[in-house]
Each structure stands twice: as structure tokens, then as C-alpha cells.
Amino acid sequence: MSTPDFRSRVAADKRERMRARLIEAAMEVFAAQGVEATVIDDVIAQAGVSRGSFYNHFRTTDEVMAAVQQAVGNELLTLIDATIADRSDPAERLACGVRLMLQTARRFPQMGRFVARVGVSRGAEHMPALGHLMRDLLAARETGRFELSDPLLGLDLVVGTTAAALQTLSLRPDLPEAYPQEITLLILLGLGMPRAAARTLVALPLAEVQLPPDSLLVRTHGTAAAGAAG
Q: What is the structure's pLDDT at 202?
């Protein structure tokens, strides 16, 4: 016989798989038609589940949209942070992180379309991984790499500009290859870094972000996209 603990684990796993399925479907729907045009039935149809299954996890389209924002943002920011963790200079980590975000969006354009349709959540309660960015902003200010009167201004600059660039990438596949570097350069200049130092940072070589097979981006874009060039 199954023990109560085993049955609880099985039920929890099943619930988590259903939530992930709904988030995946919602991302695809939001990216295709936006927030205002999306209703709960669209998400249910895309996921191929019952209305009751949806309401077991979310009450509104706003709730599932927030869940998608959190899932995409935290997943990618955490993977990027792991990729750049061995860099000791916080300004270098930030510059490389922005470039990796934009390069990943080129590999997975639906992420850019989702951001273009939905926007980006800047609340730490919805996206804890933004703490990585704030960590580097504070450290770079303390070491004199950035000139910031208020780190929150820097957070708005980095997040807002990067979100706008993600949207542009989704709309303009013909952009120059150097677009991520040039946008990152402008961000660094806005943070108070001298141009020569900023140019050095955006020219550094980067390793590609490695997305696991169960990544939300891989699941919504197909495994072929995971191997595309950055």
C-alpha cells in the first residue's frame, strides 16, 4: 500500500505539472495576442485542460500573467547569474548579464514577443531574481564603477531599457549583430561609467546561457531553438 507521504508527493507533483502546463500555455497565448485580447478560455484551450483545472491554480488572467512573468524572469535571470558568477567585477557582471539576456531573446524570439505584449514586472515580490541585479548595482556604486545617486534609478534604467530592447528584438529580426552590445553600452553610460571603460566591458567574450530541457523557454519554443546561434 502507498503511504500517506508518498500519495502526498504524487499529488504535489501532479499539481506542479498542471501549473507548469497552464503557465506554458498562457505564455504562448499572451505572446500571440496580448493581455487585453486574452480570456481564460483561450488559456484553457491552449493547455487542453478543463476550466476546473485552471481555477485550481489561478482565478484570473492577471494571476496567470503574473505567474508567467515570474517564471520567465526568474528562470532566465537565475541562469544568467550562474553563467557570470565567476566574474569579480560587479559592473562586468551587469554588462554581461544584459548582453546575455538580449542574446537569449534572439534565440527565443517568443520571449521578446511576450515582453512586448505584457511588459516586465519590477517588483521583487514577483521576481526575486531581480535581487541579483540590485546586488551588482550596489556593489558597482560602492566600488566607484557606477555613479548613482539612488540604486533604484539604476534598476529602472537597466530593467526599462532592457525590456524595450527585448521588444525591439522581437519586432526587428534585421537588427545588426552588435545591437545587444550597443544597448548595453548606452546602459553603462547612463549608470555613469566612462565611455572607454564601458566599451571594454561590452567587448568581452561571453559563453552562451545553457538552458535545461525542461526550461519554460525551451518548452514553448522547441528544442531546435535551444541550439540556435546566439
A: 97
Compute the average pLDDT of residues 139-166.
92
Question: Which helix (DSSP H) or strand (DSSP E) does residue 174 occupy?
Answer: none
Q: What is the pLDDT of residues 78-114, one digit of tens each?
A: 888 888 989 999 999 999 999 998 988 888 777 777 7
Distance CA 113, CA 30 (A): 9
Q: Name the grid cell of 176.
A: 545588426
pTM tops 0.70, yes or no: yes
**Euclidean distance between the first and the last CA atom of the chain, given in angstroms as a whole number:** 51
Residue 173 lies in a domain: yes
Residues 79 and 40 in one domain: no
On whether residue 172 sits in a domain, the answer given is yes
Cβ distance 95 to 184 under 8 Å?
yes
| Dist CA 39 CA 59 (whole Å) | 12
Q: How many angstroms separate the CA atoms of 108 and 93, rounded?
A: 22
Residues contacting 28, CB < 8 A, separation 6+ = 46, 110, 220
Domain count across the chain: 2
Q: Which CATH number does the domain housing residue 70 bear?
A: 1.10.357.10
**Rounded Cα distance, 57 and 124, in Å:** 22
Cα–Cα distance measured from residue 80 to residue 88, given in angstroms and rounded to the nearest whole number: 15
The reply to whether 47 and 73 lie within a common domain is no
The residue whose grid cell reads 530593467 is 159
Phi then psi for residue 150, to 5 deg, are -150, 120
